[in-house]
Write a sequence for this structure.
């Protein structure tokens, strides 16, 4: 009987500590910072088809050499040019009813490189130079930020201010005293990459503004 009473006392003691551990105010805050894009990314390349693989490969290789040379002549560094796709696809002839197997009638070879422009207004000249050199693939035009670290820090600070303000408002509304910050969880910063339609390359590119956002979940104690 004594052991049972002791066990019940332990349970009651443990239950009494649970509300204290659970007490708190949990809020979220999202900080947003707007900035003008300073970097452009564009994919340019060559695609060729031929009955013989060697012919398609040779045509693509020869043209891509000229494309790369024209692009780099505009001041694009080696570090800002990389191969994004090199692909070889057999071209099969449609089978007739009753026929078995597949007959390869040619090959399609694609070589696409990604070019990073350190100035957004250089995207147009890069695309023009690539097309003039024989590129028949121009796509995936994006506007971004070269280094969003500083903007993320500003958004993070704003998110924490918003979370603190929310916590104070909740505490006041609940009639309790807001305590110290117990924990913070941050979601991954959002770095948008807006795409630009290829058709717009005929005119000026308007980079507009990008939004860098950071969200946090903050937990505050409630003072007794």
């Amino acid at each position: 009987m004594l052991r049972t009473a002791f066990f019940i006392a332990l349970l009651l003691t443990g239950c009494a500590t649970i509300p204290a551990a659970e007490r708190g105010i949990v809020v979220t805050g999202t900080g947003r910072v707007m900035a003008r894009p300073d970097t452009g990314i564009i994919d340019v390349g060559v695609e060729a088809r031929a009955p013989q693989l060697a012919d398609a490969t040779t045509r693509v290789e020869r043209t891509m050499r000229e494309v790369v040379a024209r692009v780099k002549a505009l001041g694009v560094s080696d570090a800002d040019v990389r191969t994004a796709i090199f692909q070889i696809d057999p071209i099969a002839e449609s089978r007739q009813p009753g026929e078995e197997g597949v007959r390869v009638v040619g090959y399609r070879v694609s070589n696409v490189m990604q070019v990073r422009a350190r100035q957004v207004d250089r995207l147009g000249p890069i695309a023009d130079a690539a097309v003039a050199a024989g590129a028949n693939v121009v796509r995936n035009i994006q506007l971004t930020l070269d280094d969003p670290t500083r903007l993320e820090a500003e958004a993070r600070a704003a998110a924490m201010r918003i979370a603190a303000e929310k916590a104070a408002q909740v505490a006041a509304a609940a009639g309790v005293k807001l305590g110290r910050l117990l924990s913070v969880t941050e979601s991954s910063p959002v770095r948008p990459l807006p795409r630009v339609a290829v058709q717009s390359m005929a005119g000026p590119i308007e980079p507009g503004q990008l939004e860098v956002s950071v969200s946090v979940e903050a937990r505050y104690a409630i003072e007794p």
